[in-house]
Amino acid sequence: MRSFERFPNLVTMFFARAAEKGDAPFLWAKEEDGWQSQSWAEVARKVASLAAALKAQGLTEGDRVVLVSENRPEFCIADLAIMTAGCVTVPTYTTNTERDHTHILENSGARAAIVSTAKLAQVLLPAIVRSSTCEFLIGMEALPATGVRTLAFAELAGDRDADVAAATDSVADIRREDLACLIYTSGTGGAPRGVRQHHGAILCNVEGCVDIIAEDFGWGEEVFLSFLPLSHAYEHSGGQFLPIALGGQIYYAESLEKLAANIEEVGPTIMVVVPRLFELIRGRLIKAIEKQGGIGKKLFDKAIELGSRDRLRLADYPYKLAIDLLLKPKVAKRFGGRSKALVSGGAPLNPEIGQFFSALGLTLLQGYGQTEAGPVISCNRPKAGIRSDTVGPPMKGVEVRIAEDGEILVRGELVMHGYWRNEAESERVLRDGWLYTGDVGFLDEAGRLKITDRKKDLIINDKGDNIAPQKVEGMLTLQPEIAQAMVSGDKRPYVVGLVVPDQEWLAGWAEEKGLEPVLAKLSGNADLHRALMAAVDRVNAELSVIEKVRRIVIADEPFSIANEQMTPSMKNRRHAIRAVYGDRIDGLYKG
Hints:
Elements: H1 10-21, E1 25-31, E2 34-39, H2 40-56, E3 64-68, H3 73-84, E4 88-92, H4 98-108, E5 112-115, H5 118-130, E6 136-139, E7 150-152, H6 153-156, H7 164-170, E8 179-185, E9 193-198, H8 199-217, E10 223-226, H9 233-246, E11 249-252, H10 259-266, E12 270-273, H11 275-292, H12 294-307, H13 317-334, E13 341-344, H14 351-359, E14 364-369, E15 376-379, E16 399-402, E17 407-411, H15 423-429, E18 430-431, E19 434-443, E20 449-454, E21 459-460, E22 466-467, H16 469-476, E23 482-488, E24 495-501, H17 503-513, H18 519-522, H19 526-540, E25 549-554, H20 574-587
Parallel strand pairs: 1-11, 3-4, 3-5, 5-6, 6-7, 10-11, 12-13, 13-14, 24-25
Antiparallel strand pairs: 1-2, 8-9, 14-15, 16-17, 17-19, 18-19, 19-20, 21-22, 23-24
Helix pairs in contact: 1-2, 1-9, 2-3, 2-7, 4-5, 8-9, 11-12, 12-13, 12-14
């Protein structure tokens, strides 16, 4: 088994891999004539060239540079170049508003910004104009003429004679404890806070992930498909620096609409995804197989049935053989045919989703983490025994302790050095070397961590009973009629819910009724309400008395990143949803 080196910083790791891999393909993007790659050596030259250009513009050690870009090769190049120049990357979401950009520019004190497109620049530029520190903007594509000093990315990164050896030498003094990036947490409430991730925090994460891959799967030629926003710590560490550590290849997905096709084309060996996408993939698989019917449908139903059992009976083995020979290869092909593991993180995964994919022959590993911890804290691994209702044992180099009130505490190099310019919040969550996660859980008999809920999200009803909203919401969204849900009931006599109907189901239902399938026009429809309440009641049959959802209201539109009702990792932003629907939710307790 290949051993993994201990690197002093992230960019030394990159240059070491680039020297090893040379002209082998590294970064892939879809162009008009198909997938095109850039080699390790080519990317190293661009990183060295851009880093030298940033220094030539007057940037010095520790200066912050904001990076606004969708997932593409230039993001990786820019990120590595900023760090190579001794500066600090501040990756921000492409969905940020002008107000968000203003807050991050001012709070970080960024001296420069890099943006990918003119469209994204339109939102960023007004914030730069108001900024008291940002001196210039670099555009990956052509930018509109403004009063802001702008430079062209292609020119700055285009020196083919860039001295890679000199760049490699220049980063040797960067230490693991030095600041690598400021990642602003979108959070489910409040203004974003800048998490100070040092080089060692991300390297600790990478080393832990490499340990799982090497020990449980075998380290080979790894291929990643990057889809989640690279401005999110989960993709930044797991979808960018982990592939670099492994000497792997990164393909950048085109869009959510083309994700399924991209998976088949690319054939990723490891894919980092959030639970919401697994729910969507599950729904599409079910619909495709139901439409096909026949033996495929029977085998599919049998696979799910057998997958839920702890032990197979003798009569089950002929079915298992048919499932293994006829069904599983077709499912594997949909995932590119060489998947080692699908890794779920960023939000809780309903155990039924894990059982579903496992039954179809796919290895789905649920992990757990926070931006404040690099972000990966634990992950399921085959050698420890995969339990889909847990998030696995803590990673290598990570200590986990459970406080008296059930809060999960974490210690290790992966823990952040605090929030940027926010001493009060830093002191609140960092105490005696431990990160107070705000999550509640316990370690099972095998040392696997099980999350029961967010400490601050727990519903405490008027009788003092604790209710985990994410469990109930996860069960609701497994119903074919319901795409999204948020439940409430804090200091109330019972739980109520806000639900978003599944779009395809709603279209079919509306066609049967002779109605226009526009959610905003149907949210008050009594027949639709009864149909959705029937789905809720199916879930209620499996819930305790205190968890049952007694009444519901229908949302006017889906929760999304665009309307700020979801975080980029696809978690409900409860405060934003309540700001829109609070009166209607409270109205469910009247009468």
